[in-house]
Amino acid sequence: MDQLLQFLISGLTVGSIYALVALGFSIIYNASDVVNFAQGEFVMIGAMSAIFLLKGGLPYPLAALCGISITVLVGLALDKLAIEPAKNATVVTTIIITIGASIFLRGVALLIWGKEIYGLPPFTGDKPITIGTATILPQNIWVMVGTAAAVLAVKYFFDKTIMGKAIMACSFNKKAAFLVGINVKQMLLISYGLSAALGASAGILIAPITFMSYGSGVMLGLKGFCAAILGGMGSSMGAVVGGLLLGLIETVGAGFISSGYKDAIAFFVIMLVLFIRPSGILGKAESDRV
Amino acid sequence: MKRLAGYYCFAIATLMLPLLFPDSYYVTVVGVTVCTNIVLAVSLNLLMGYAGQISLGHAAFFGLGAYSSAVLTIKYGMNPWLAMTAGVIAVTVLSYVLSRPILRLKGHYLAMATLGLGIIVHIFFVQADQFTGGPDGISGLPVLSILGYPIDSDLKWYWTFAIFMLASVLFSLNIAHSRSGRALAAVHGSEIAAQMLGVDTARVKSYVFVFSAVLACITGSLFAHQQDFVSPESFSFFFSIELVTMVVLGGLGSTFGAVIGAILLSLLPEVLLVFEDFEVMIFGAILMVIMIFLPQGLFVAMEQTFFRLLRRKNQRAADVTS
Amino acid sequence: MKGLKKLVLAALCLCMGMVFGQGQAMAGKTVKIGSFLAVTGPASFLGDPELKTLQMYIDEINAKGGIDGMKIEFVHYDTKAKAKDAKNFVNRLIKKDKVNLIIGGTTSGNTLAVIDIVQKAKVPLISLAGSVRIIEPVKKWVFKTPHTDRMAAEKIFMDMKKRGITKVALITGNGGFDKSGRAQCLALAPKYGIKIVADEQYGNSDTDMTTQLTKIRATKAEAILNFGFGKAPAIVVKNAKQLGIKLPIYESHGVASKKFIELAGDAANGVRLPAAALLVADQLPANDPQKKVLLAYKKKYEAKYGPVSTFGGHAYDALFIAVGAIERAKSNNPAKIRDEIEKTHGFVGTGGVFNMSPKDHLGLGLDAFKMIEIENGNWKLLY
After folding, report:
1. How far is it, in rounded angstroms, from Cα B67 to Cα B82?
2. Could you tell me if B129 and B176 are in contact, meaning their C-beta atoms sit under 8 angstroms apart?
3. Residue C101: CA atoms inside 13 Å, Cβ hemisphere, count?
4. pLDDT in tens, A58-80
5. In angstroms, rounded to a whole number, what is the distance separating the alpha carbons of residues A135 and A141?
6. CA distance A135 to chain B (A)
7. Is B21 close to C40, i.e. CB distance below 8 A?
8. Would you say residue A285 lies in a domain?
9. Looking at beta carbons, which residues of chain C come within 8 Å of A215?
10. Domains in chain C: ranges and CATH
């Protein structure tokens, strides 16, 4: 059973990647009820920008910071140019807009960065650290630290700051928020920027382990979405719980049942959870106005 | 009759196409793809547009129909129509059993459950390679014959698909105007209100789910015979998303919306081929632009433009006579 | 807003019109070659260098006046590795573009999907994919230039036998190349006295294979065989190093590109793989028949695009076998070209020296594959 320890550790490392992406989903969802299908592309753009800035000669930390900033600009542009003009669209329509945006961003990434696969150097080297019978890479620990920091920051932001509470207010009732003087448009813009920053940070954290190319955003976005739903869409703790759980189910399923069917097992478990708790693990039970 | 005037025009245009452009690659090859996508989009629209239930796993039923036909005819030598029926029965049972728990979910959670369904089925297609041929797929389906007439040319396949498509569209148009259609609309409008009025919403939603799944399944079987080849990537979750996009692009809740959306999304890649490297970027841009400026969908926009032109013409006529 | 709506609708109508208004291709003394390759998408690792190679050499041939005075008209489509698009494009190449010869697909799945179409249309196809199923059983109009997955498995097992390895752990992805490679490995292992003690799988876009490797570490495996391409094999070898697994690792020819070494870093050292001689062209003895051709291709490709890979090499082979056939046929008639392709003899390509026949539409023997080990971040020719 010493294998179990490695399975758990690997599950947590993979899970923290999913959690970070899931967090980005929940912020925009909180502000606007919309699932932003371009979230995965934020991850990709952050990583790819940093990779190319690094290649261009910038020192690593600066390249990372610039990569995040570029992605934030993309996120703001996405809101200003694509989401805002469609202000009266239904949720489904807006989702299709984000799907169109993700395809567009992928197309642009393909033109700018080509089809090749790239990696980033790990932050503090790649000498594995042994924990009992299992090993973990330093970069994996950075990912977990990054996720933890992000979750705490997001929770603090939404619970304790005025701006965060204003964004939450928008998600409860846009009109009421507007009536009490909240600039709804601005709140939405900020939430896109925030999600972009989170996504980009995730991309830079994981690129040393997973390698990136113009199409990497798709799978990560999908898994992040699943994690967010599993944990309860809109709850930042939920995003983390969902992400870690998804990672663990994948590795434990692969380890003990079948590595070929591990994704099927993971989705099956997600569906079971949803049948029992229809709003996700930590999601609030949805109440509809009749 | 007036209500179906649009439909009859469309039907005539579809049937005339190969006569107007004989021996055209576009009509026979692309046309079949378009018809396939129309039926899939229309069936999805019944679920999403009329019953208001989002599904990100529609490609799974399409795939199950295709694989049942392929595996049963190639590996077990079954008669193609029997294989198709077996597929329909399997899909009916599967979708019915799943419909009850899945349709209790709402919004994004429903989307997730259907997404999960789609992905699990897709993984099965890829991994059970002893059975399904794995990622490289299987080919060699026997020729399909209708009443003794083998469908063995591109043109014959076009006719087959065109007729199947027109029948499905007609059926969908009629459902909307029937008692079941009204029940569907009621469920979509407000489930609680519908329940209070005595509509068994769970059963209605279940029936639509099963029906749209079966329609997709039959389409899959025909597709398998026409392509003479099935492989998992035609039934991936990307395709499910494409179908959702078709429905929404055309106009959620409208049969013709689904038709227009399917036609557009099937032809757009062909048109964009000329742009080579820019193809992906332009495709995404077009999606965004259409949804931003025509949020109710293409069909509604076309209808509005049409009626506005009509009104203007009548207005001018009225001005002249007054 | 209203005006904009009309504009959007008008633009859409224009697009629809464009679809039906496509004109006929220009006539004249040309030979039309079509290709359908996975230039973008999950197999771009293979398809991108393939297209670049074809374009580079077709431009050069045309600049020199073409083949026997016939210029090459090159029509190429990007399948993104999707089988359905592969079928559509091949249909388009045959029925609309009316090509005389087709090169492609990049993947076995894409190739297998179109075999029926080219057989019915009687247009010769030279595939750039690996599966042995493409040419076995032999199909009249279908040829290929890359070594088969069966050859890769054989070469690997032969080397393992030399090293006295009898228990092997298999770890493969969920793509077509991976799965058909796995099938060949499972089928051939007994022939070399090798027992497969583990059969793990991963998804090609997975980010972590430590779980599968942990399971392998717990078995009595004496070597690990990874059949895959793209970034996944790089993650596999990195994870193996992370877990402290010291077993010999064998890869397939799917990693025959510098990119693998770049991504895997130190972890790539010690990995063995069967690959075309192209990777170790400068290490070949001076009298090796392939050396001259390989160095020329390497020089030309690297000057324009960067490090060379064997996948581009397969495209080179396909193109020049086709060119040779067209020259001998002295015509652009597909049937005549096909007959001459089948008569290809002693053609020195990047994959080896090709000798085709009516029963062998590949024309390469096992010796065309070289066993290579990665040492200090470079390819080293073993034998």
Report:
1. 13
2. no
3. 33
4. 999 999 999 999 999 999 999 99
5. 11
6. 30
7. no
8. no
9. 40-42
10. 31-148+293-365 (3.40.50.2300), 150-282+369-381 (3.40.50.2300)
Domains of chain B: 2-321 (1.10.3470)
Interface test with B, best of C179, C180, C185, C229 (most B CBs within 10 A): C179
Residues of chain C short of pLDDT 50, as ranges, are 1, 17, 19-27
Q: Which two tokens stand for residue C161?
A: 């036998």
DSSP letter at C106 equals: S
A268 touches chain B (CB under 8 A): yes
Quick check: A97 and B237 CB within 8 A?
no
- Residue pair C124/C104 in contact (Cβ under 8 Å)? The answer is no
Helices (H), chain C: 2-20, 44-63, 83-95, 108-121, 149-162, 176-188, 210-217, 232-242, 258-264, 291-304, 310-329, 334-342
Q: Nearest-CA distance from B209 to chain A in Å?
A: 17
Q: Tell which residue, C83, C258, B295, B320, has the closest CA to residue A84.
A: B295
**Residue written as token pair 């001459």:** C340
Q: Are C16 and B267 in contact (CB < 8 Å)?
A: yes
Domain with A69, as residue range(s), is: 2-276
- CA–CA distance, C5 with C18 (Å, rounded to integer): 20
| Residue A287 within a domain | no
Question: Which pLDDT tens digit goes with each residue over A121-155?
Answer: 999 888 889 888 888 999 999 999 999 999 899 88
- Phi and psi, residue B23, nearest 5°: 60, 30
Q: Inspect the interface and report whether the beta carbons of C116 and B21 lie closer than 8 Å.
A: no
Domain count for chain A: 1
Residue C275 phi, psi (nearest 5): -155, 165
In a domain, A33, yes or no: yes
The pLDDT tens digits for A87-126 are: 777 878 888 899 999 999 999 999 999 988 999 999 988 8
* Cβ neighbours of C234 (radius 10 Å): 24
What does the CA dihedral B160, B161, B165, B168 come to, rounded to 10 degrees?
60
The CATH number assigned to the domain holding A233 equals: 1.10.3470
